Amino acid sequence: MRLNYSIEACASIFEATIIGSSSESITHIYFDSRKIQQANGALFFALSGHSRSGNEFIENAYQQGIRFFVIAKNASSKFHPDALYFQVEEPLTALQQLATHHRKQYTYPVVAITGSVGKTTFKEWIFHCISDKFKVVRSPKSFNSQIGVALSLLEMHENASIAFIEAGISKPGEMKILRDMIQPDFGIFTAFGKAHRENFADNEEHLLEKWTLFRECKLAFIPHTFADLENRLPGNFQVCESYENHHFPIGYSGMLGVLKTFLAYLQFESHQILERINSLPTLALRMEVFEGVNGNTIINDTYNLDFDALSEALIYQRQLAPTKKRIVVIGLSEKHAHERLEIEKLITSFNPDEFHFIPEGKSIPWENFHNAVVLVKAHRDRAFEHEVARGKALKHRTIVEINLSAIKHNVSFYQSRIPKEVKILAMVKASSYGSGADKVAPFLQQSGIRNFGVAFADEGVELRKAGIGISSSIVVMNPDPEHSDLIIEYRLEPAIYSFEQLDEFITALIHKQISAYPIHLKFDTGMHRLGFAPSDKERILAIINSQPEVKIQGIYSHLADADNPIHSEFTQKQLTSFESIVSYFRTNSSDSFLAHILNSEGSLRYPESCYDMIRLGISMYGYTENNQLKASLQGSVSWYSSISQIKAVPKGDFIGYGISYQAIEDMTIAIIPVGYADGFRRSLSNGKGSVFIHGIKCPVVGRVCMDMIMVDISSVDAKINDSVEIIGQNQPMEVFAKSMETIPYEVMTGLSKRMHRVYVEE
Ligand SMILES: *Cc1c(COP(=O)(O)O)cnc(C)c1O
């Protein structure tokens, strides 16, 4: 503020009586004694607010060096002999008179901005767009009230070439006062929402009141949504076509349209207009949107909690989630506790599904929010950033995407190929071959699968905890003897492969006085891994027949090379051996059990040996060695990352550890945050492995690091954050596995746990 008014001039503007004398002039004003910084030349307006009388602060201001005061006639102030007092009817009116007088000193255009939301945003936008061509005066912050407008006008100075003044009202009659002060040449109407309407009879009254501002304007710019005003209200309008710009939410198209039209009016060329609008800081919206925990979307707008910004945020929230649940979270600071009711009213008018005031010292209950759009607003001094950060989904840039629909398709495909009565046991060991058993197994259960296989007891416990109920059987293929208690507690079914283990398990059951506990007998028919020998069958049966603690729930074996037709003779021998075991128990045991020997590959090659159940593993996830089968299965795992950084590497420079790669030409490389710790093996260094960016193959250059790789993107037009495919359309699982000289099983189970798993269902 750079004023220069003599005492006499002020007295005449205020129509005041002066007490005291001075030859100094007034250069700036204050009305809040807490904000006094420069007392020299300052005029203090003793405004009376809702809860305080200005007089209380006069003394305080005097102590801080203020010597000029505007006070109410009836004020019972003590008059200091070295101070000067303007006595007026109403100090606020005096302030507005000064503003009115000041505004009249300038002939450059004054643009008034009103609307129930978006005023501050629009003012910042216009400043961004024109400040290189115009010397702009604009309202500080969101100063748009009776006092704020006066202060804004007092900012006008002779070096400016245009002024933008925000005007906001909350009661009928206020806008006329604002208009008389502003005397706008042009008007901008941003939008009309629900904010600040409680004191008005209806929309029409509120609109008419706002309109008062534009009555005497040369031209008012209004969004297309108010086109019908043209016939209803007096004045000169320019109805502005809406303008959609992909940087902004669709709800901003009205305001953007006004901006575009106004810039054209200011004689900006259309290419300049586009360029400027495209470079608008979306940060001006202050709202940050990101993915939260539990499928929430979070709108973070914890910078301030003024009403304008709040209603803007509420509108934005509604646009972002027309169908999703809306939750509003407010961090009110103690200092503003009195605003609570008003804030509540505003929020309620938007009908959110829930809203929460978070008291000081309490946390946002993120755990209770699911699949909602959560708007968080708070006063700055609540320092809510940390609270909001807790709700943010922690995300590694590199993700493993699991397509559940593909898994379902593959299961259905198998069901259509095997006899109707044959069951499917889903192998979900090693966390569902790396795809996340806690998500995949419940999905399979939903699709009707009732038999699951895991390797170890703790994997079985994880399944039960993830919601695989007692009506589903979970077979633990390699149980440790010391896990018997855990197995029993969680009702898991152990595969028994030796006499010691059988003895141990029966002992555990005796201690717990449990009988007829289901167990599975595992036979080694030629692979020579875990399992009883076929010749053990009589002795096993004798033990089981004499021990009521256990019953045979299943008998199984495993094929050593089901994939390979050239070893079908060997496989046939295994099948024959299994058949003699099964028929022995069928004849001699009273337990009715499920027999099974076939895995994914075996099920289609030897369908006559399905017995009661097949154990589906790799093919369920969509992978097979069988070329004819490939077309019928759908791969379920994709692996993506994104570019962290792009670099130009001059010819002759080296890349990575061990300076093992030298650029033969000038090249461009991208750094991708995936490394051998994630399962992208070190053997893929220096061209052995590749990724795909925009569908183009980009070979690894230099050595694979623990958490990063560098790839050659010289032939790709790529930007930072662009998506990188490691496994997907362009580089299928089988191809990637080959590049690491391994099989899909190992690739899948080697995908590190630290990578986020994302589940998609089409
Ligand atoms: C892993 C496993 C399977 C599944 O094999 P796939 O080749 O993945 O179908 C079947 N049975 C046993 C005993 C297993 O350990």
Question: Can you describe this structure?
Answer:
It is a single chain. With 762 residues, the protein is α/β, with parallel strands linked by helices. It has 5 domains: 5-94, MurE/MurF, N-terminal domain (Udp-n-acetylmuramoylalanyl-d-glutamate--2,6- Diaminopimelate Ligase, Chain: A, domain 1), CATH 3.40.1390; 106-278, 3-Layer(aba) Sandwich (UDP-N-acetylmuramoyl-L-alanine:D-glutamate ligase), CATH 3.40.1190; 287-394, Protein-Tyrosine Phosphatase, Chain A; 403-630, Alpha-Beta Barrel (TIM Barrel); 637-761, Lyase, Ornithine Decarboxylase, Chain A, domain 1 (Beta Barrel). Helix content is 31%, strand content 22%. The protein contains 25 helices and 37 strands. A 9-stranded mixed β-sheet has the order 29-32-35-34-33-36-28-19-37. Strands 26-25-24-23-22-21-20-27 form an 8-stranded parallel β-sheet. Helix 5 (146-154) runs parallel beside helix 6 (174-182). The two termini are 61 Å apart. The model has no long low-confidence stretch (mean pLDDT 89). Pyridoxal-5'-phosphate (PLP) is lined by residues 427, 429, 477, 558, 599-601, 615-619.
